[in-house]
Amino acid sequence: MHAIDPSAQIGAETEIGQFTVIEAGVIIGKKCRIGHHVVIHAGAVIGDEVRIDACTVVGKQPLRSKRSIFQDEKALPPVRIADHCLFGAQVVVYTGCEIGEHVLVADGAAVRENVTIGAYTIVGRNATVENFCKIGKKCKLETNCYITAYSEVGDYCFIAPGVTTTNDNFLGRTQERFKHFKGVTIKRGGRIGGQAVILPGKVIGEDAVVAAGAVVTRDVPPRTIVAGNPAHVFREVPREQLLEEQGWE
Question: pTM of this prediction?
Answer without folding.
Answer: 0.93
